[in-house]
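Section 5.1 Outputs to date
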Amino acid sequence: MNTAKKHKEKFSLAHLTALQVPPPEFIRMASRTGYDYASIRTIYMGLPGEPNYDLSTNKEMLEDTKKALKETGLKVWDIELVRVEEETDPVSLVPSFKIAQELGAKHVIASIWTDDLEFGKNSFAQICDLAKPYGLTVQLEFVTIAGVYNLKGALAILNSVKRQNAAILVDSHHFHRSVHLFGDKVEDLKRIPRKWLNFFHLCNATSLIPEDVEEMTRILREERLYVDEEGIDNKEILSYMPDDIVYSLEIPHKQRVEAYGYEEHARKCLESAKNFFTSSKVKKEVVLS
């Protein structure tokens, strides 16, 4: 008789899925809909249409966020987003790192948008150094439309900076695009050391990749699909991820939010992910130690 316990997947709700919901209510919503963690966007980037949830300057919202965590028992898995550009001052991020530690977060997401990769590499290394005293791992996410746009580039950065608290965040949507546009291969995921894999941005999207950058941007911010829908071969991608990785569901979809509301959409995101893992027999490949 096989007495081995089946691994239970852990899920976090990524803030981009419901970005207009402020952190306190976002945490309560994540708890009500069954998530294990919340991933909150507390680093303000000044992008058009994005609300400012900088908890280091909004003390009232910070206290309400702490209250929501205490009420629900939910944990903050990560904060985001460090957008590395020429005008980014790494030292200015320290207040956000302090707040992340206060909230119990373990990770901060960063992506490199400058085309000056030497500058981007040095800035990323400095960010890792600044985040380390606060117990934060800096997750480098490669984004198809950014300066570091594929797995190969992300691996090159981490192998160069050699920071103990540096890691790689794979997003199934971005990776699908990098495979078809920039020469990555699914089996290249075996090159990621296990210590660099803490969590995974999970979603689905149409397999057709638009050529227009504006349309690519719109889809990744407004039209990602539920995990159990057709498009990306998540089954193959996830075969290279460790069993105990946390899945952060980043599934923004403007029309579905308008139809269902943020909370029901968040619930459907989680249901779709659980359906995927129930119905898909993901055969695990070897992950490096």
